[in-house]
Amino acid sequence: MAVSLHTRRPRIRLKFGRLLTHLVLFVGGILWMYPFLWTLGSSFKSVDGFFDEGLSIFPREFEWTNYVNAWNEASFSQYFFNTIFVTVFTVILTVIFTAMAGYVLARKEFPGKKLFLGLVALTMFLPHGYTIIPVFDIVQRLGLLDTLWSVILVQTAGGMVFNTFLFMGYFSSMQRELEDAARVDGASFHQLFWRVMLPLSGPMIATVALFTFIGTWNSFFVPLVFTLGVPELRTLAVGMFAFVGQNSTQWTYLCAGSVITLAPIIFIFVLLQSYFINGVAGAIKS
């Protein structure tokens, strides 16, 4: 009897600890999601309801026209197209360039490699405010100012270092047997990358694509600076300021625009979450 009581107590403590952990995580998750849920609910509120209902998530009356008005009155259709254009090309260029750089750094040794990687890693800690002036000057000299390609170029360059290290870690964790077999069949270094290693790096491609997609889609500073002279080239993040007037703010339209902006990110993450988890696990393991 004493033995059974002795064995039950740790089990009860374990179950209680798990229950408490799940309860804390559940409450934390609700608090974490509340701002988004409030924004989603407020996007359906009327102007009066937005102020009268306060922090309530559920609107008393649904104003479905908020989304239509936000889409039409603030030129969200044009901003949406601009954002898709910038994001798609930035993701493609970033994945291609960082995959090539990561594979070379993972498989090739050269004198001073550790020092080089350390110096490159330091650039990730430079604030954007310190580098925007020389970058702006380069873009202006290239004749790309006030174009969407300037945003694509700067966004791609900004994501090179971090994503290159992700690919380098992933390729370093992959076995060399496939490469050795391909070399026996006469494959060159470039053929090894394009035909063998890159197709096998699907999880990391999805991870980098997801990181780049989210960062580019939400980017505010770079599109603001490089499309300042042409309002028609604004992205969604910059276009949100169309709802902020000098004397008033269209809060319900602002909430509707926020939901429109966040919806593609949520969809892409749900679509690629399994690849994202596998890619991050592979990079950390190395």
From TrEMBL:
- State any GO CC term: plasma membrane
Family annotation (Gene3D superfamilies): MetI-like (1.10.3720.10)
Looking up Pfam families in the UniProt record yields: BPD_transp_1
Its GO biological process terms?
transmembrane transport
PROSITE patterns per record = ABC_TM1
User: Which residues are listed as membrane-spanning?
Assistant: 20-38, 79-103, 115-136, 148-171, 192-214, 251-276
Q: Show the InterPro entries listed in the entry.
A: MetI-like, MetI-like_sf
Q: Which UniProt keywords apply?
A: Cell membrane, Membrane, Transmembrane, Transmembrane helix, Transport
Topology of the protein relative to the lipid bilayer: Multi-pass membrane protein
Subcellular location per UniProt equals:
Cell membrane
Superkingdom? Bacteria
First-listed, main subcellular location of the protein, grouped into a coarse class: membrane
Q: Which residues form the ABC transmembrane type-1 domain?
A: 80-272
Concerning its family, UniProt says:
Belongs to the binding-protein-dependent transport system permease family.
PANTHER family, per the entry: ABC TRANSPORTER PERMEASE PROTEIN MG189-RELATED, ABC TRANSPORTER PERMEASE PROTEIN MG189-RELATED-RELATED
What is the protein named? Raffinose/stachyose/melibiose transport system permease protein
Origin species, per record, is: Thermosporothrix hazakensis
